[in-house]
Amino acid sequence: MLDDFFTRALLAGLGIAVIAGPLGCFVVWRRMAYFGDTMAHSALLGIALALAFEWATLPAVFLIAALVSLALILLQRRGGLSTDSLLGILSHSTLAIGLVALAFMPWVRVDLLGYLFGDILAVTRADLAAIWGGTAVVGVALVLLWRPLLAGTVNAELASAEGQSPELARAAFMLLLAFVIAIAMKIVGILLITALLIIPAATARRFSASPETMALVAGLVGAMASTGGLYLSLGYDTPSGPSIVVAALILFLLALLPLPKLPRRRATEEQTP
């Protein structure tokens, strides 16, 4: 079954979607969409680092994303600039440094479009193992961090008073996000990763009565978008990564439609005979 490239692509998309959805909920709740973009843009610098030192791509991208997260935390403590300004500096600086670094390596042939927009159809068995293994690790970590993360999202001061560690949970969440971005890069690409985090979570928000329900629905919406986008790409010969994001957008727009109202039964009809 895994010999078929389309089957591998489907499994890879599902592996990313089921964990990107719950993580994306915290991105939405904490208004960290720009942080997700920063992490994604820093991935190109990680790729340049991997090519320069002949490292594996995934650990190099994760290393750079983790360093950017740490830099953001340290710069926030210094004060002087808003978080949006700091994210803008880090995002565009890492992207620019990555592009300049690649320009200094003319002996390396780089499929820049593949990194920017993904190439899910080129997923190998080793990639599948990394994706599903990473998804399992992040899923277990997210379950363990759920309560302190949720408490810190609602009210950080109250969470600290209750003995939680919201700052530590936030730092751990940033590392988890960096790791997911590193393994998702091959699926939808650097420029579209944030969309896969945010759109399913925003879609699930309307149909969820609790944070846990929203996380589960976001994972389901992400899986539907991944599968639908791949079949859209197969049927119309469109780029796979952007097609997945378009499918997620279609689901989001459908979620905006008014829900059908169930007719109310009259009190006399509700009474038992």
UniProtKB/TrEMBL annotation:
Gene3D superfamilies: ABC transporter involved in vitamin B12 uptake, BtuC. One of its GO terms (cellular component) is ATP-binding cassette (ABC) transporter complex. The chain crosses the membrane at residues 6-29, 41-74, 86-108, 129-149, 169-202, 214-234, 240-259. Coiled coil: none annotated. InterPro entries: ABC_BtuC-like (IPR037294), ABC_TroCD (IPR001626). It is found in: Cell membrane. One of its GO terms (biological process) is transmembrane transport. The keyword Transmembrane applies. SUPFAM superfamilies: ABC transporter involved in vitamin B12 uptake, BtuC (SSF81345). It is a multi-pass membrane protein. Involved in the high-affinity zinc uptake transport system. This is High-affinity zinc uptake system membrane protein ZnuB. It comes from Jiella pacifica.
